Amino acid sequence: MQIGTALGILAASVVSVSCVLGVETVKETRELNVATASGAALKVRTSNGGIAVVHGDSSEMRIKATLTAKSKERLEAIRIVATNDPATGNDVRVEFPEPVKGEQEGCSLVIEVPKATNVNLAATNGNIALSGTAGTAKLESSNGGVEIKGHDGSADIATSNGPVTASAVSGPIKIATSNAPVTLDQVGAPFRVSTSNGPVEVRLSDAFAGVISLSTSNGKISFPAVAKVESQSGNKGYGNADAKIAIRSGGDASTVRTSNAPISVKAGG
Predict the structure, then answer these.
(1) Do residues 192 and 255 touch, judged by C-beta distance below 8 A?
(2) pTM recorded for the entire structure
(3) How far apart are CA 42 and CA 35, in angstroms?
(4) How far apart are the C-alpha atoms of 126 and 156, rounded to whole Å?
């Protein structure tokens, strides 16, 4: 049974018209509020726009949607559907009118919600930002960057052509992107990073322990003096470079893979 449902506009700004590359578009901002509970799951879907989720102290999920369409009629036909179900949690999705929208039509979302537990965000051609959440975090985009910080749990991140930054994520981290850098900070759990044509920088927390396998091409690998080197090859700044290092004892294995870029692992502190 749904305890809150919002469909369409609760409050809307003045519609504006702009012209980009000879194509006229219409924009509008809508704000929606849905009753919810702290710790509920959150699932969000949109296209041609980003998603930002931040922690809020209210008992409501507050959504600010910025929509773009090719005409006022199509703009009015776009629906922001937001529900809260006690069994499945919060669900937010953007429904576009037929026929399939073009690149000039999309929706970006900023969502303020009491601390969400288990978050699933998916966007296309837009950035994703997440903070103050817990549980599992599955973040997926294309042609956009991803930033997650202050998350008490695991993170599974997939994007393309966009940088990824993860800071203060307490659980295991899995990252797959391309043509972009990856930055991890305050890492205390195992991680798997895969990118291309972008540098990778990892700063470990004082609690991290485990073996890290590092591999790149046409880039150097650097790691802290406290690391025990189990194997190493290449590392001349050109050609392939590989290293396997251990930080303290115990812990699960971690990996970093990139190409045409360096890898840097730094100790905590």
Answers:
(1) yes
(2) 0.91
(3) 13
(4) 17
